[in-house]
Amino acid sequence: MRESRQTQRILGEFLTRRTPATYTLLREKAEVVGSSQNFSKYLIDAISKQKRLFLEWDGYNFQEPRPAEAIRHDVSDDVLTPFGQKFRDLVKGRTFIDLPCGDPKASGEPRALAEAFGATRYIGVDKAVQPQIQTARIGEEQIPEFYINEDILTFLSQIEGVGKTVVYMSGLEFFQLSEVGRLELEAVLQKESTHRFAKRRLEADTAGAQYREACLAEMARILQPGDALIIGRATHGFNPEKYGFRLDEVVKFPPPSEDTVDHAMYIKE
After folding, report:
1. What residue ranges define each of the domains in the chain, with the CATH number in brackets?
2. What span, in angstroms and rounded, lies between the C-alpha atoms of 26 and 234?
3. Which of 201, 195, 235 lies closest to 215, judged by CA?
């Protein structure tokens, strides 16, 4: 109980705004579906030239969150990619917000990197996590970690005065009519008419697009000039440049899909 009150007190210092009623309607219709895969682990591939330094340690399962100490031992320029060097410099001294963060036990790479690169605090938001507060030791430093069970747009809309910030988004997906498989569609149509299903899906697709735009508008409000928005895998349909962000660095998939963007870094102007 004490831990819960402490969490509420600390988060209450910057979660002070009221969520607009229109956002509540978007949240209900958009059908946001957090990915079941851990796409955040690919952030390691984007920042590191020597993947083995980050993925394999004695007695540690690389499927589990990487301890920050193991990452921090070598973050020099000769190990980091150009993207990784900029990522490191941007994270230092900023709040790191992870959207959606996934299960902390299975998706810990962004958290560990935030600690290793000198973030002032880590905030992970996902409807799948249990609210908690932790303190992790990094050498002689301490970094507060928060996991918030909340809708992403609702969380963003409540932020006021969080200070210098980096936002990382990976695995933020929406249910799309065009992506419904044949067997899934047949199962749905056994319960409702084709017309009703098509109407519901169209409404969800439209609300999903509006949800994305609202998220970007809120991030444009929250982030200060020089702050960063980093978009990772399985997060589509976002165009930050419409909201005052400049595309600064791109990491593409390895061959044969090198024309497809893997991670993109946007700087608030």
Report:
1. 2-175+202-268 (3.40.50)
2. 20
3. 235
- The answer to whether the CB of 87 falls within 8 A of the CB of 117 is yes
Tell me the C-alpha distance between 250 and 256, whole Å. 17
Per-residue pLDDT of 42-86, as tens digits, reads 788 788 876 544 444 334 444 455 555 566 555 667 888 899 999
- What does each C-alpha distance from 226 to 91, 130, 131, 246 come to in angstroms? 11, 32, 30, 10
Q: Is residue 265 within 8 Å of residue 250, measured between CB atoms?
A: yes
pTM, to two decimals: 0.83
- Burial label for 255, CB within 10 Å (0-12, 13-18, 19+), is exposed
Count of C-beta atoms within a 10 Å radius of residue 46:
22
Alpha helices in the chain (DSSP H): 2-11, 21-30, 42-47, 51-55, 68-72, 82-91, 109-116, 152-158, 182-189, 194-222
- With b for 16 or more beta-carbon neighbours within 10 A and e for fewer, the 107-131 pattern comes to bbbbbbbbbbbbbbbbbbbbeebee
